[in-house]
């Protein structure tokens, strides 16, 4: 097995040090590198000053064999990074014809005049290999210097992602003969990390030593990622997949998908398979439930609408919640939320409906119903189901949790395919 | 003027290097340090390995006089950081009685059994000064070692923020005699950075040399932050504020607030001052408009509800949009969105209403109405106003931009206080 290189990530820009921009590029790079089995040794964010960039480059190459650099490549940054890199490698900038043609083509297509600053994007240090950037004007650059690989990418996230995926990761795998690695992701919802770990402890303990399970928690659930490192035996992936039926059996209804699928996406598929339409009635979630559902492209095929009934009058007038129900049980009650779901079905003319009502906080709590009291309901032609939950981690998280739990309630009660 | 120290930020945790967690702590610290006039020299994220933490500490103190460390302090992290720090400073861990009492108090209050791991949170390196953490169990720690200040804080964001605000920033100001610095923030919306800069170029050029203006862009607008550094003359802040009337005059209706106020918050205040209620009718924004409005605590005082009419049938049945209007102009048209706003006013029984309809993408565009075509409308008792806009930067950003523009439309057309 070849010795794998450590990787260092360096992001350049005063705006990172001032905290005006949150560095999300490093997290993406870290995730993708972990997926191919490479370790990130350190992430550094440095200023736009040439001497400080050089000092950071010197330190990075002491720690790692690969240094991935982002930022400082756009025309507004005065191409600082590539000038610094040219000086660092004691070479000069040369014109890269294919990049110039690419940039010219982009400006022709958008019918915009090309400025000198745009033309300069085609200048690159003479010792680099250019990585073609199909989604922007600043090219990626690959350097090898005394055994260390340096790669420079634009700081614009979607350009960096394109270059990482299309050029940098495959090249690193080839250059360092990184052994193949496979991942299988199982999405779960509704079970905390420690409960989940308990249910699969012996399954996990019995995994071959080249298989590793990672718990990746999110609000309301956990993604499980099984990673298989090559062991010289054939059929790595099929052997991993053969372990999944037992995992699914242990976790039962908590598993909602395999692969990188969001809960709202999984629900869209279930609805489309059954030819069912969905609507929502929202109080405490204030529109976020509908927003999560409609964040999936194509959701208009099954999602018809929502009635956000923040005020009790709207609950009565638009959702036909009875005044007596509100008086007897209050707006945050299973009784009210059931009527909201049923009202949404009728009013929106949908097959299935979800409803939410809760005390998101910070105010509005009582002794009986403290902040974090949440009621959710699901209704279809045959049944109405409701739940009362408690979750209190601040207004925003309370609302996000409610949305996830409501989506899950739908998933668990949607009629089976044959019935729908 | 005393020489100001450079600051180094160090975040500890394998989860940062794997990209499982995005480091938002550094951005907060960078912002707050910039506000008091201190420069961040570098931000480093390092692993949980003791030798790598020590190497990073050695390098950080070479570059800066203050090193702020977060992460590695919770019980689940096995208190790694403080053990490493104790060894780094060649001292041992000692029990800090006030912290033990504080932790015991928290467990008593929640009536939970205290484990040994919780008790160990009261152990701190003998050479540190403890910074009291009122919002958690892991204390902050302040070290001075051969002229360098090291501060260790928990990685939990709200605990780090508490310690920064209450203890670290004031102590740094005092310890290094940081001269006072004042900030005045002016919030604008609806004008791009370069247009805005043009309108105030000569105003900005005429600022005293100790006043600096920062442009902080967000989707749909720009925050302007005027920073005043002490110049030995009295009344720094009043002198800064005296410049604002001219700035406001230049930017006119684009200014919506002074200070750290969100647009949805500013609108809530305007509605409350006028005693008006608000409702929304949403197509392309799919609930996000209502969610942004209801993300403000107390919004139930003026926001009654929303009808998310994703489907045309819902637009007709719940918002009384005419079939002829939809047939003649389509769902994405000023005609339709005006009827939506008027329908929402009637159906929700609100004083003023906002409506949105657009092609968020990635699909659904036509030659006439490409992806990114957006229509918004405002309606009150006296008038209905609509706009057609174009904005295409991907589904999620298109929707977010539409929400901001709709909120701004309301702000610009709400009746003046005397009329309402």
Give the name of the CATH superfamily of the largest domain in chain A: MoaB/Mog-like domain
Strand order of the largest sheet of chain A: 2-1-3-8-7-6
CATH class of the largest domain in chain A: Alpha Beta
Q: Which oligomerization state do the chains in this entry correspond to? A: homodimer
| Mean pLDDT over all positions of chain A | 94
Percent in helix of chain A: 40-55%
Counting H and I runs of at least 4 residues, what is the number of helices of chain A? Answer: 17
Shape of chain A: globular
Structural class of chain A: alpha/beta
Number of strands of chain A: 17
Indicate the proportion of strand residues of chain A. 15-25%
What is the number of domains of chain A?
3
Give me the CATH architecture of the largest domain in chain A, please. 3-Layer(aba) Sandwich
InterPro entries (chains A, B): CinA, CinA-like_C, CinA_C, CinA_KH, Competence-induced_CinA, MoaB/Mog-like_dom_sf, MoaB/Mog_dom
Protein name (chains A, B): CinA-like protein
Organism (chains A, B): Hymenobacter sediminicola
Pfam family, one (chains A, B): MoCF_biosynth
Q: What key attributes describe this structure?
A:
Alpha-Beta Plaits, 6-stranded mixed sheet, 420 residues, alpha/beta, 3 domains, Molybdenum Cofactor Biosythetic Enzyme, Chain A, homodimer
Structure explained in plain terms:
The structure is a homodimer of 420-residue chains. Chain A has 420 residues and is α/β, with parallel strands linked by helices. Chain A has 17 helices and 17 strands. Chain A has helices at residues 14-17, 25-35, 50-63, 80-88, 97-109, 116-119, 157-175, 193-199, 201-205, 236-241, 244-251, 263-274, 288-294, 312-319, 323-329, 334-348, 395-413; strands at 6-12, 39-46, 66-70, 93-95, 123-125, 129-131, 140-145, 148-153, 181-189, 211-218, 221-229, 255-258, 278-282, 303-309, 352-358, 373-379, 384-390. A six-stranded mixed sheet of chain A has the order 2-1-3-8-7-6, sandwiched between helices. In chain A, strands 14-13-15-16-17 form a five-stranded mixed sheet, sandwiched between helices. In chain A, β16 and β17 form a beta hairpin. The interface between A and B is large, with 73 and 73 residues. Chains A, B: Residues 8-175 form the MoaB/Mog domain. Chains A, B: This is CinA-like protein.
